[in-house]
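Key result, reporting period 2: structure in, sequence out.
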């Protein structure tokens, strides 16, 4: 009897896992793999997943700022002969041989970065969506509407919620997101894929 109940329960769990929207941690790639972006993206969470047509979907971008300052400090030390590139990581370079006095005036004016706070006071999110390689949609959002401003050095989350039209075709889409500061200088650029399911909002609920 117990075995029969288990056999009935297992398919039910499989069906529910296919029908109920879940949360996905999407794989993220940088637009330029060789760029030293001032904002590093640690991951993107999409909820619900797959995205449901005609229902709210939330994209949460986990990010970090401050790494570019460490890189500037390291290269300043290298230029002064205080550090060999292969000897330490950027962070160790910052901790053991440099301070903000090592930066020249041009480095201190680096876009979006402050040697004393790494704060981003204003900015925009530029979103571009493609479907099977075809550009289909773009939009711009105020950064301070998607996260708390000013963004200080360290970890922060950009959370964007959107309702996709009910007629949106199901399938796999690619989203490209750029973050620019108030001078329109690029702070980061990432891309990731997401899927829109076949379910309607009524079926998903």
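The corresponding designed sequence is given below.
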């Amino acid at each position: 009897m117990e075995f029969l109940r288990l056999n009935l329960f297992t398919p039910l769990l499989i069906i529910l896992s296919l029908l109920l929207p879940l949360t996905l941690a999407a794989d993220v790639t940088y637009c330029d793999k060789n760029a030293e972006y001032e904002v590093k993206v640690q991951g993107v969470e999409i909820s619900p997943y797959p995205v449901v047509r005609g229902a709210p979907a939330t994209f949460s971008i986990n990010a970090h700022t401050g790494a570019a300052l460490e890189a500037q400090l390291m290269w300043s030390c290298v230029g002064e002969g205080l550090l060999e590139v292969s000897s330490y990581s950027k962070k160790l370079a910052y901790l053991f041989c440099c301070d903000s006095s090592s930066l020249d005036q041009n480095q201190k004016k680096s876009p979006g970065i402050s040697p004393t706070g790494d704060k981003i006071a204003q900015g925009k999110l530029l979103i571009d969506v493609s479907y099977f390689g075809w550009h289909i949609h773009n939009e711009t959002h105020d950064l301070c509407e998607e996260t708390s401003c000013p963004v200080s050095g360290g970890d922060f989350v950009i959370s964007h919620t959107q309702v996709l039209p009910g007629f949106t075709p199901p399938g796999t889409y690619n989203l490209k997101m750029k973050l620019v500061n108030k001078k329109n200088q690029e702070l980061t650029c990432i891309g990731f894929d997401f899927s829109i399911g076949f379910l309607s909002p009524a079926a998903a609920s």
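The first strand starts at residue 22 and ends at 26. The first helix runs from residue 2 to 19. This case is discussed further under Risks and Mitigation.
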